[in-house]
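Problem 12. The chain below contains 260 residues. Write out its predicted structure in token notation.
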Amino acid sequence: MLLRPFIFLAALAPLAVADVEFTTPAAGASVAGGTTISVAWKDSGSAPSVSDLTSYQLFLCAGGNDASNFIQLAPITTAGTFSTGNAASGTVQVTIGGSTTNAYFLKMISVATAGGTVTNYSPRFSLTGMTGTFPANVIAGIATVTGTDGPPTENQVTSGDNAANSGPAGPFTQAYNLQTGLTKYAPMQPIPPTSITAKSATPLYPTSAVIFAKTWLPRPSQVTTLTQSGTFSVSSMENTAAAAAQPSDDMQKFLNRWKD
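Solution.
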């Protein structure tokens, strides 16, 4: 069943320090749906250090511990920065999901200064008083969970899988037209090379089928599209070449006409 649209209001609080370990909500905690959810985290002690992270995206999720059976329900913030603190808060509408015990957890995708991303998941917690329902795959995923641990960390930084040269990671790898749910993901724009070596143009992705509408289509269910954060870096240097001499031919005579 499709989840109805929701509003998620985010407010970042001033607090920051590594790879993230969530402290609030606590494992197994119960939070009343429709009220403010306070989120806090600390340095986990694992690489990369929080001081080596720049920005993050934070989401509320529900489901199992496998990517195939959990979904992102609401973005808390899609443009957070670690320099502003290690806490955030948001209000969830009661219609976005059910009240299943320990069905919910948080997901944070952080961008490293050196390139690449690390994705951390919080312990599981419950939202009470919820009036919505979950899709079948999410319900099946919740049934496989024991304990309060969320999905395992996905470290694309310390493993050497730098996103700047290995392509997009996580949900950004799935073709856009094959994605479902309230949030869609677009990969990072490719970085142009310093020289053109190709002799013929080839498409980056395979073509997809097109079906032309013959009647009015229903309103789209997607709420937002998230584009993967850029993780590449550039360098520049001063141009030390001497300036070209002024012209002395007819062009100079032409330019002399505008001398004051």
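Discussion. The longest strand covers residues 70-81. Students who got a different answer should revisit the alignment rule from Section 12.3.
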